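R.M. (postdoc): so does anyone remember the format we settled on? I'll just put the structure tokens first.
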């Protein structure tokens, strides 16, 4: 595929900043995901990266039937697309318990599941009359959510297994803390962490409990989990890829499929360009860089504020005020969520617009 896939000949028609997506490249990424894992039954792609019904439908067309999401709005969007299996990778608390129940009732043909890491949540869902499968969320080193593997985790799963209204859906383990660029070392770290998960699963089964599935990993560890036929893989960023993963994980063969169109709004000094690409237009994850410029490999951020990004580049003289530039977001997931719609690149032109439906926290529920 072309190295300058992102260029559009009708850029004068596109107001900046804008999010552009190439659905052909995204479709190719889906094909590569399936080739890596061996079949659609092994995939549970995360929709948090794209939040678009069009991408979900592409994945359904590819034979994928199970999905993972971060919000109930994303879960609703997936169900509207006709998916039959949706894992909400969150623990239901507060009003979201009632919202989850409403979601289950509104989409009876979709099987919803969620996460749990304590007995109090099980009791709250039982009291509310929620009937879903729950996966025990294991903390395997990230220390963000979940419960550490051990007797307390086994007690929570045993309590879940005895529930009359909820179902024990298996185990969920996310290894987002493993960011090792070296693929050999990364594999060692992932395998060490999941040896404990597999041992824990075997212990639960030996004690008479059912563990239907183990949902594991994200994008950096995807290829490693793909080697294990008893792991269901849940990568997300693979569908669009981004600057961080392109830079850090060169062993993973995916294509950038989302890019930002920005314009020079000022030239405040020698070798300086000011762009309309503030942190309201691109995720402001620290540290820099927050974007990569394919046409400006020496670019570095000087100032980043709400509506402006000033960069240093020795190529500044080539660009006049009003000139277009293209920028690959360093972190694509929160960048996509900043835009109400994306513009599709088709045949080297900006074509139709598609809604980023699930960027909202609430749709109808």
């Amino acid at each position: 595929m072309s190295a300058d896939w992102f260029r559009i000949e009708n850029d004068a028609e596109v107001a900046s900043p804008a999010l552009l997506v190439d659905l052909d490249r995204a479709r190719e990424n889906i094909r590569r995901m399936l080739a890596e894992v061996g079949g659609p039954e092994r995939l549970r792609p995360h929709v948090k990266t794209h939040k678009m019904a069009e991408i979900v439908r592409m994945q359904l067309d590819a034979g994928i039937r199970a999905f993972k999401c971060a919000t109930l709005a994303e879960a609703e969007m997936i169900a509207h697309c006709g998916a039959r299996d949706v894992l909400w990778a969150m623990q239901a608390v507060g009003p979201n318990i009632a919202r989850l129940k409403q979601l289950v009732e509104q989409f009876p043909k979709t099987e919803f599941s969620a996460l749990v890491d304590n007995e109090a949540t099980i009791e709250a869902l039982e009291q509310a009359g929620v009937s879903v499968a729950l996966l025990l969320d294991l903390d395997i080193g990230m220390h963000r959510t979940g419960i550490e593997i051990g007797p307390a985790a086994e007690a929570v799963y045993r309590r879940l297994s005895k529930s009359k209204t909820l179902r024990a859906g298996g185990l969920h383990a996310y290894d987002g803390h493993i960011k090792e660029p070296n693929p050999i070392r990364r594999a060692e770290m992932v395998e060490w962490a999941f040896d404990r998960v597999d041992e824990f699963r075997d212990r639960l089964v030996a004690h008479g409990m059912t563990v239907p599935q183990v949902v594991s990993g994200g994008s950096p560890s995807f290829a490693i989990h793909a080697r294990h036929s008893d792991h269901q893989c849940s990568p997300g960023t693979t569908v669009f890829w981004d600057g961080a993963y392109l830079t850090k994980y060169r062993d993973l063969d995916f294509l950038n499929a989302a890019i930002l169109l920005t314009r020079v709004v000022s030239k405040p000094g020698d070798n300086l360009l000011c762009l309309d690409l503030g942190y309201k237009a691109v995720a402001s994850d620290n540290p820099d860089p927050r974007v990569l410029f394919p046409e400006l490999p020496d670019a570095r951020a000087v100032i980043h504020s709400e509506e402006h990004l000033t960069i240093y580049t020795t190529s500044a003289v080539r660009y006049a005020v009003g000139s277009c530039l293209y920028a690959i977001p360093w972190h694509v997931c929160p960048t996509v969520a900043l835009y109400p719609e994306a513009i599709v690149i088709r045949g080297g032109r900006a074509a139709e617009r598609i809604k980023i439906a699930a960027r909202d926290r609430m749709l109808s529920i």
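R.M.: ...and that's the designed sequence above, right after the tokens. Also worth knowing: Residues 115 and 135 are 5 Å apart (CA to CA). The chain has a mean pLDDT of 97.
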